[in-house]
Amino acid sequence: MAKVHDFLVLPAMPDNLKDLERIAKNMVWVWDAELEKVFKRIDSKMYRACGKNPVKLLSMVSQDRLNQLAENQGFLCDYQRALEKLDSYLKSPTWFQKVCSNENNSLIAYFSAEFGIHESLPLYAGGLGMLAGDHLKSASDLGLPLVAVGLLYQKGYFRQYLNIDGWQQEVYVENDFYRMPVELVRDEEGNPVTVFVDFPKKPVAAQIWSVSVGRVKLYLLDTNIPDNPAEHRMITSSLYGGDREMRMKQEIILGIGGFRALVRLGLEPTVCHMNEGHAAFMALERIRHLQQTKGLSFEEALEATKTGSVFTIHTPVKAGLDEFPVELVEKYFETFYPQLGISKEEFLSLGKFNTSDENETFKMPLLALRLSAYRNGVSKLHGEVSRRMWSSVWPGLPQEEVPVTSITNGIHSRSWISEHMNELLETYLGPNWDQEISNKDIWKNVDLIPDAELWRTHQRNKEHLVAFARQRLKAQIQRRGTYHAELNWAEEVLDPEALTIGFARRFATYKRGNLIFKDPKRLVRLLNDPKRPVQIIFAGKAHPRDSEGKEIIRQVIHFATNYNLRRRIVFLEDYDSNVARVLVRGVDVWLNNPRRPLEASGTSGMKAAANGALNLSTLDGWWCEGYSPERGWAVGNGEENYEDPAYQDMIESQAIYNLLENEVIPLYYTRSADNLPRAWTHRMKNAIRNIAPRFSTHRMVAEYTKRFYNHAAARWDYLTDSNMERIRRLAEWKQNIKNAWSELRIEKVDIQVADNGAKGQLDSKQAQLKVGYQLQIRALMNLGPIKPEDLSVEVYYGSIDAWGDIKEGSIMQLEYTQQNGSQNEHWFEGRLECKASGRQGLAVRVLPKHPDMVDPFEPGLILWESAPSQGVLSVR
């Protein structure tokens, strides 16, 4: 093939419009309608045809049109206002500056395999990516010193279409980066900035692109460059494409290449946040970098890396967790772990529970857990599930103390509410309602919105949804090449006045997209009620290799056809953020029925609620925290322990029908004399007022900042100060504690009733005390070479269950009192008051203690008294 000389042709922008490209390439327009308005005015039809991509629009609009706009005073006024608004946004004081002041000059790096900022940048597959995109938007709004790292996929995730039988087909569309809001990062000489990552045969080169998300920069790595052989150019070909080996290559580029990219750009981070386990190799590269640049040992660099690492785990579903065969890990890391100064076995132990088991896979979430000091699930329930899932990482620790906390997800509200709803909130809450989204006082003003205005706003959104769905269906029909009669049908589907239910998400089996079809006759009766009709809009993709998920989509299509419900049940193809926005803004009810507890959080219901929709959901993920009868409906009572999934599906589908028949439909169709559903709008207000401020990424990012980022940054600065001396001392102390831990023994535990006229040794078999009594507890410890100040000797106490275990116990510290004669034996003492009646228990335990550890559970060392000296206490 002949050599191709490539070059880039840019529009010749008139001088007085030269900043249009700057507005287009900063994605603030995604959530600011005034900035987006400028591009709609250029050519609204072309803007829609470009997928609402202003960069592509500017590359396609004619020079004549640009010259016309340069003389159009109305357009110039809008353009100038948008430019001033963007500049004001970028320069104005921020929440972070006011609250945190950033005295330590920290830099947070957020690593994720996908980012869902807008459909014009299709680098996302589902909820994980949408959450990451909203995280960046709120980080920008709040002014966090944050950069993000991901991969620039040539094809992104697949585009979906359904064949005539309703079976999902996939097609991959190549992205044109030069018509997207991304820019190639170049050095001072104009050359693309490149990083290299060692692979078995040849290093892989990756060039760096940047995306401006308000104040935040997102850096994306791209291996599709001529310097790489064909197999390496394919690494960033598609999101979640290929086999296990391709997934490992992608995660090596994301983690190792991503960290190197930041260093190459002079952006060495203080805090690194791994959004799911895909980015866990980043921590290994950070360890290697610290060893190389600071002269640290592996243990010392490990301690420093943990100090500045945050890990958010997103899924309790095994299929969603990345695991790699050991031989694959060895293939790609055989030259890496010698650079760390550790053996192959030590390296593999970072991602395995049992290193002696040759068949056990290398688990990315486990690697991230072990290399992070801050760990969280994405809802309160998911935090509990994660502690249960990963409790074996900290053997001997009660499940509730497993050091995985939770920060519940949220949404970037401005990105998801409609323009009409935004105007309503600006009118009654104030123009800066989104900047004070966590201020509960301003949200009380939602009650001031007249019912008629709220309902009219909602109906406008629903009318837009119906029009959008009809247009989308017509396009689907034309693509299949079906008859004219089909096009006529598409013009008549859905009724703007009917109760409209939305169900849109990834079609995984546990999300049960077909649950509502379990009793066909009952559902048909509900949908076809002439006086109170109901309609359902479905959308969503199944993973290309998930045949069961594809079958559920097919069942939706066949159900609508077989029961002549095609005007009442609609499936919209190719679910993306654009479809999602229209749906969450226009539906009346958002249906979500995952099998608890497999939905880690979910955010689509939050988006719907912010627009006034009411949620109807099983008590899973975020809805456990968001539900109350005044703002939606709960399916079941949070049951998890069904032995027969089919029986569970039957029970919970019937619960959905009952709620629809007895509560949802009557409430929607009960109208006042002026034809307003006032009881329904009352619930809409409750949903907006209570859910929007609480489940926002502004709240979420602020929580990450206060609980994780600031703490991690301060600890990093403290521990790495003085030429890394504190880190070296901490690593040495930990190693000494681990080496001596086996010599530690609890020799004796002595428990006596201390007062209330009942002094004396406690009866070890059937102690009966009264509330208010105090117990004097003494523990004799043989410390071996460990110093008393290096230990936390504790009483773990609380109610006893039927199996004799303490549940959700509390902690009381025993204080060091004296040596016991022998050089290594020492007494620790304390008093415990009996505050609760019932069957109570206590046990003595020992943990390592050091002021520079994040928590005492971090080293994974714990010693319990082997047989409780005084038995179970019954306090009455």
Strand and helix map with partners:
Layout: H1 20-24, H2 33-42, H3 44-49, H4 54-60, H5 63-69, H6 73-91, H7 95-99, E1 108-111, H8 127-142, E2 146-151, E3 159-162, E4 168-171, E5 183-184, E6 194-197, E7 204-213, E8 216-222, H9 230-233, H10 244-264, E9 271-275, H11 281-294, H12 298-307, E10 309-312, E11 323-324, H13 326-333, H14 337-340, H15 344-349, E12 362-363, H16 364-370, E13 374-377, H17 380-389, E14 405-406, H18 413-416, H19 419-429, H20 440-443, H21 451-480, H22 484-490, E15 499-504, H23 520-527, E16 534-539, H24 547-562, E17 569-572, H25 577-586, E18 589-592, H26 604-610, E19 614-618, H27 623-626, E20 632-635, H28 645-669, H29 678-691, H30 697-740, E21 745-753, E22 760-761, E23 767-769, E24 774-782, E25 791-799, E26 810-813, E27 815-820, E28 822-833, E29 838-848, E30 863-864, E31 873-875
Helix pairs in contact: 2-6, 8-30, 10-11, 11-12, 12-30, 21-25, 25-26
Give a short summary of the structure.
The protein is of the alpha/beta class.
Q: How many β strands by DSSP?
A: 31
Cα gyration radius (Å): 30 Å
Total of DSSP H or I helical runs spanning 4+ residues:
30
Count of discrete structural domains: 4
For this entry, what is the oligomeric state of its chains? single chain
What name goes with the CATH superfamily of the largest domain?
Glycogen Phosphorylase B
Give the structural class. alpha/beta
Overall 3D shape: globular
CATH C-level name of the largest domain: Alpha Beta
Mean pLDDT, rounded to whole units? Answer: 92
What is the second-level CATH architecture of the largest domain? Answer: 3-Layer(aba) Sandwich
CATH topology of the largest domain: Rossmann fold
Poorly predicted parts = 868-876
Helix content: 25-40%
Percent of residues in β-strands: 15-25%
- Cα distance spanning the termini: 90 Å
Give a quick account of the main beta sheet: strands, pairing sense, barrel closure.
10 strands, mixed
